[in-house]
Amino acid sequence: MAARPNPWVPRASCHLGCLQAGVESDSRAAVTCRLLMRAAALAALAPGLAVLPATGLCGPAKTHLQRGYCRLVLRALGVRVSVSGFEGGARPNLRGVLVVSNHISWADIFVIGAVTPGAFVAKAEMTCWPGLGQLARMLRVIPIERGSLRALPGVVADVAHRLRSGKTVVAFPEGTTWCGQAHGRFAPALFQAAVDSGRPVQPVRLSYHHRDGRRSTAAAYIGEDSLGSSIRRLMTARRTVAHVHLGYQLDPRDSRRTLAHRAQAQVLGVGRTGAPIAHPTAA
């Protein structure tokens, strides 16, 4: 008899049919060629997973190295990163802030890690994935059991402790992945860590696009999709552009529910004045 689903675990309404949106058509030879080239590039980067933890680097040097390695992995997967949202062209200080983003794919942590590395709150099973799990551990993933409410206070306390010590933590408050065409509700629980530590919240809007700017579902990992199928779909796409938009920081003196509501409003594309935030042009 199948286990009864936990009613508190977020479930996306997305399904495998969502993955057909904006699909590019290519010859079998072109797809196979891309797959082989990118697989070879990933294989060349694999030794770095063993070398990076042994470098002994810490602080800004380690952050810079992790950011660069994430970008190399994404390039091997056929993904380029585009960043927007800097006020006056200056990079905001993201040390000791809770970064919250919408959630589309297993690739999200590498995209955000290429922009603002930190510890990631992600589902526990990710650390066990072959290859990707080792890279996730390098990015200091804080494992969370989606079906265990009893473990949640401990995760919130861990996140608050890291924030107080000046470390950046990235979380996905939707609690599960969506296809990128639709979004889930931001649960307020993890925002309590920002309230407890007195550290600001940095909303981030993440989206994947084709080179011509159309939305792409190549990176999506939803529903009954398998990890292998998701990786292959991304690696065989012509090129995927991941857009990362940094919104304005939120004051931690608000309640966790207010923070969740305001962060979700920004991630869904509503700015400080209520006007939609434009997506950057695909590179």
From TrEMBL:
<keyword id="KW-0012">Acyltransferase</keyword>
<dbReference type="GO" id="GO:0003841">
    <property type="term" value="F:1-acylglycerol-3-phosphate O-acyltransferase activity"/>
</dbReference>
<dbReference type="InterPro" id="IPR002123">
    <property type="entry name" value="Plipid/glycerol_acylTrfase"/>
</dbReference>
<comment type="pathway">
    <text>Lipid metabolism.</text>
</comment>
<keyword id="KW-0443">Lipid metabolism</keyword>
<protein>
    <submittedName>
        <fullName>1-acyl-sn-glycerol-3-phosphate acyltransferase</fullName>
    </submittedName>
</protein>
<dbReference type="GO" id="GO:0006654">
    <property type="term" value="P:phosphatidic acid biosynthetic process"/>
</dbReference>
<dbReference type="Pfam" id="PF01553">
    <property type="entry name" value="Acyltransferase"/>
</dbReference>
<feature type="domain" description="Phospholipid/glycerol acyltransferase">
    <location>
        <begin position="97"/>
        <end position="209"/>
    </location>
</feature>
<keyword id="KW-0444">Lipid biosynthesis</keyword>
<keyword id="KW-0808">Transferase</keyword>
